[in-house]
Design goal:
- There is one protein chain.
- By secondary structure, the chain is of the alpha/beta class.
- The chain is 34% helix and 21% strand.
């Protein structure tokens, strides 16, 4: 047994259950997760499960206000698969992907996706989820009168703001949707499966105003002060990163390093 393994054994994984990989997730929040195991966070959890030799045990809870407080902090689980690395509510693992807000528009719109910047499409009508960074960008450009807003915090069992924003581009209600990259990529894939509808294009917003951050890294979340558990997850993630990248690619997640190549 290695020194690190011995330390983990004596620490008892900080009083956590060692029989299962206990994950808290939303049961109806694709592309991230659902209770059918169809989200990319479900697939990544499966990779971790195999690597750690622990069967997954889910605690399902809607991803809304109080999610962390009512799940991870109450010890109803030991891991949340996706959270912004900057979150101060938890102890973050090392980041395992880096994505960016993206524009979605119709292929027949005449918009050129090569080197696309907001100042080239000022006359368009935009769909934006309220309170997200693209809203700040549009406000800086004085374009809020051309914005159709969508709610940020919703009951995921009833509302899908990013899906609505992309659907409105498809039906001509707006010209451009600006949504978080994993959502943009997923819904573009979903809507483009219908060959009878206009095709949608996604353009990662990697060349915009540097004063407003549009790219973020995503980590997993564990409880504060559970350092041994965090390091164990970090080692597993480092080993699994190529497989994680493949899953993200299959779901259309725009990754910053690839978007700027």
């Amino acid at each position: 047994m290695s020194i690190s393994d011995a330390a983990e054994s004596t620490a008892g994984r900080e009083a956590l259950s060692t029989r299962t990989l206990r994950v808290c997730a939303d049961p109806n929040n694709l592309p991230y997760s659902n209770d059918q195991g169809e989200g990319f966070e479900n697939k990544i959890a499966e990779l971790l499960s195999a690597e750690l030799g622990l069967p997954i045990q889910y605690t399902w809870f809607p991803q809304s206000f109080g999610f962390i407080r009512k799940t991870l902090k109450l010890r109803r689980c030991d891991l949340v698969i996706g959270i912004a690395t900057t979150s101060e509510l938890v102890q973050n693992t090392n980041p395992y992907y880096h994505s960016v807000y993206s524009m979605v528009f119709r292929e027949d719109s005449g918009i050129d996706s090569n080197g696309l910047k907001l100042d080239k499409i000022k006359e368009k009508k935009f769909g934006v989820v309220a309170g997200t960074p693209p809203a700040s960008l549009l406000a800086k450009y004085g374009l809020m009168r051309q914005v159709k807003p969508y709610l940020l915090v919703v009951d995921t069992r009833r509302f899908k703001p990013a899906k609505e924003a992309v659907a409105d581009v498809l039906n001509g209600e707006t010209d451009v949707a600006m949504v978080w990259g994993p959502l943009a990529g997923y819904y573009v894939q979903q809507f483009n499966r219908d060959s009878s509808s206009p095709r949608l294009v996604m353009a990662p917003m990697v060349h915009e105003d540097d004063s407003i951050r549009l790219d973020f890294t995503i980590s997993m979340a564990v409880r504060k002060r559970e350092y041994v558990w965090k390091h164990k997850i970090n080692r597993a993630l480092a080993k699994l990163q190529p497989d994680v990248d493949q899953i993200l690619g299959e779901y259309g997640v725009p990754l910053v390093d690839k978007a700027i190549e």
